[in-house]
Design brief:
Layout: H1 19-42, H2 44-59, H3 71-99, H4 120-133, H5 135-151, H6 153-179, H7 199-234, H8 238-292, H9 297-325, H10 328-333, H11 335-345, E1 349-353, H12 362-383, E2 387-395, E3 398-405, H13 419-427, E4 432-436, E5 443-450
Parallel strand pairs: 1-2
Antiparallel strand pairs: 2-3, 3-5, 4-5
Length: 461
């Protein structure tokens, strides 16, 4: 991924011209459908546990088991365990729907209000009440029941079609082989019935091949449909989605306010300790030079030269400060050229690929620029990498930037490597940051920010 402009790439070859690829994709989709089918069957276990716990709560309220435990308490424990397993299964289904089906499903659960409970046990009790009263929990239960009772058919149908087609194909092929064998002895048939021939076997071969190809071809589409079906029950309702958006906006607003306040404090500190101190010293030097101008012109001349040097340094510090607030190359030439300048200045060998046909809004440009700058700084400080690649582009209303290095990996936003700050910066624009950094590398950071591009000369929304 390099920063120089690259020639436009050719349009991707249609999938029907790449039989190896679509066959491989179809078989992979069928394997994933089988895994989702197994997950659906496993979902019957927590459903049975919830039913058993409810039965213990309702029908055996006053009785006790042989070991002295109250069945009502046992039923509550079984219900909580079943609800926890149902939530785990629903969460796994959401992740697989995003990774395998290409359908992102937001987590709709309610959160325990911070500070609502005084102690750890009160917090656990409040959490249990929130889980049981959350409509998303019962929607998860509904999904487990519906999925186990027949929802899996959408994911399993292509595999069944392919297996059936292969079975018919083999049976027809076996019939053709026997009919054409030189030792095959035709049996006498009653009058009026035609001879055996191999026409029916050829028909079976063709039908089986058609079924197998159809199963492989529709598998990715069926898997995507299964993901959408899961999103209808496991995704947030319109009311819950609105609550999630409000919570997200409140968090990002708080982060943006804190980030802005921290930036203002940094600017004030830099001005006070840098340019302001030099300007004060320059004023004192000019005052002394004024006093020595008549009595010692040579000393006054030396002081004036010193003041000129101080003014040049103060001007350089002010320029660096302004460049840290909004780099001139970003304002003049846009995000792609500014990132290219970062790649050229990086101590690690960096390459940039991609370009932008227009300019994002100025705040988005600034956030993306400083995010890439922070990532390159992390690579040079922590990754021990030899090369870094940068991808930049805009597609379907989304600004996409990827930064990949061949370093040692192990980057974690929770460890204070600057990734958490990048996530907060991008989240203020409803953007997302995905980090993949296994131990041993490579580290891949992908950023997506929804925005529209304007003409290269303007940068409004």
């Amino acid at each position: 991924m390099s920063g120089v402009s690259t020639p436009p790439t050719l349009a991707p070859e249609p999938s029907w011209r790449r039989p190896g690829r679509w066959i491989g994709a179809g078989l992979l989709a069928e394997a994933r459908g089988l895994a989702l089918f197994a997950l659906a069957l496993v979902g019957l276990i927590p459903v049975a546990g919830l039913a058993l716990g409810l039965d213990l709560l309702v029908n055996f309220g006053g009785a006790t088991v042989d070991n002295g435990l109250d069945r009502r308490l046992l039923g509550l424990v079984v219900m909580l365990a079943g609800a926890a397993v149902v939530r785990w299964q629903a969460g796994l289904t959401r992740r697989l729907a995003g990774q395998w089906c290409g359908v992102a499903i937001a987590v709709p659960y309610r959160q325990v209000p911070p500070g609502a409970a005084a102690g750890p046990w009160q917090h656990r009790a409040l959490r249990v009440r929130v889980v049981l009263a959350d409509p998303a929990t019962w929607r998860d239960l509904l999904w487990a029941v519906v999925n186990a009772c027949g929802g899996w058919l959408l994911a399993l149908f292509p595999a069944l079609l392919t297996v059936g087609g292969v079975f018919v194909l083999l049976r027809g092929g076996l019939g053709v082989g026997l009919a054409s064998h030189p030792l095959a002895m035709p049996k006498p048939l009653p009058r009026g019935i035609p001879g055996p021939g191999n026409r029916g076997s050829v028909t079976l071969v063709l039908a089986g091949a058609a079924l197998a190809v159809a199963g492989v071809w529709i598998a990715p589409h069926a898997l995507r449909g299964y993901g959408r079906f899961a999103a209808a029950l496991l995704g947030p309702t319109s009311k819950a989605e609105l609550a999630l958006q409000v919570r997200h906006l409140a968090r990002t607003r708080s982060d943006a306010i804190d980030s802005g306040a921290a930036a203002m404090r940094r600017i004030e500190r830099d001005l006070h300790d840098g340019a302001q101190a030099r300007l004060v010293a320059m004023g004192m030097t000019l005052q002394v030079a004024e006093q020595l101008l008549d009595s010692d012109p040579a000393a006054a001349r030396a002081l004036l030269a010193e003041a000129r040097t101080s003014s040049a340094r103060a001007l350089a510090e002010l320029r660096n400060l302004v460049r840290g607030i909004h780099p001139p190359v970003l304002a003049d030439r846009g995000l792609a050229e500014a990132v290219r300048a970062l790649a050229l200045d990086s101590p690690v060998r960096a390459q940039l690929a991609g370009d932008l046909a227009g300019r994002p809004p100025a705040p988005v440009e600034s956030a993306a620029y400083f995010a890439v700058s922070e990532l390159l700084a992390n690579v040079s400080k922590h990754a021990a990498a030899a090369r870094v690649w940068i991808d930049i582009g805009h597609e379907h209303g989304m600004l996409r930037i990827g930064v990949t290095d061949d370093g040692r990996g192990g980057a974690d936003p929770a460890r204070g490597t600057g990734l958490a700050g990048i996530e907060r910066r991008i989240a203020a624009f409803d953007g997302v940051v995905a980090v993949s950094s296994p131990m041993g590398g490579p580290t891949v950071v992908n950023m997506e920010i929804p925005c529209a591009l304007s003409s290269p000369k303007t940068s409004s929304c």
